[in-house]
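hi! just following up on the protien thing from before. the input was this:
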Amino acid sequence: MDKKVVITNFTDPLCTWCWGLEPVFRKLETHFPGEIEFRYVMGGLVENIEEKWDPANGIGHADIPAINRQIEAHWKDASRRHGMPVKGTGFTLFSREYPSTYPQNIAYKAAQMVDPKKADRFLRRMREASAAEYLHTSHADVLDSLAAEVGLDTAAFRKHIDDGSAEKAFREDLKLTRQYGVTGFPTCLVSYGAKNILLRGYNDYDTFVKVIEMASDGKVRPVQKLDTDDSKILDFIKTHGRLALAELKEAFDFPDYNTADAWVKKMEKQGSLTVTPVGTSYFIATNNIPEFTGPHYCDSTTGQCM
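and the predicted 3d structure came back as:
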């Protein structure tokens, strides 16, 4: 094929329904192998949490500790519906000193400047760290540590943040977001050649399939028969580092969570997988991936990691 379907995801690292879209993206990967390219535009979900009012989800009009509790309740409710793991208790990400998600958006742009391929893995780690680990991902030391974990050059990463170049790139993303009239996340622009279709909000796999077929005039269609051999599934997990149960279920057409869970237990018993429980669900990883033993903490002042 001489061109791919491009899915541009207008997003924010702390958007729970963007987190919930991950299983849909995994299914698109397995059902349209090599035919889809994902791109990410940072939309800046929260400039200042004290000024945010989201009545549909009961968020706002309170002090910051109360807003943190509201967000936690919203994330847990969303997790019950989209299936991606949320830690569940102890959400304290926002504070007077850190009232915004802009640091995470700017950090992604810095990662892109350092290494575009590793930047998407960094975005994923920010999502995991925020939703499933409740780490303070707006803090410089946490961002530096996550950058080191995915193999980014942390000195170059921090330089782009500190010199303002990453924020400038983020402001360009905000302009693009406004240009397309995007006001909520996730929003996805599905493109094929000169044809573009905008999908607002969370959408399921079947909706994406219909839009992809419309955009490509029927030239791009999902595979007729998916290879669900154990080795293929394990290779897919290895490629991504680790997956949530919901992603596994969707990517390989398990009929329900119980069936997917039974497969995981079988592979775990054989020693092929490691399971890490997290709040409302769990992550799985293949056992032949070396455990990360690099920096666990980076000092943004000295630039040293330890």
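The beta strands are 5-11, 36-42, 187-192, 195-200, 243-244, 273-278, 281-286.
The CA atoms of residues 102 and 304 lie 24 Å apart.
cheers
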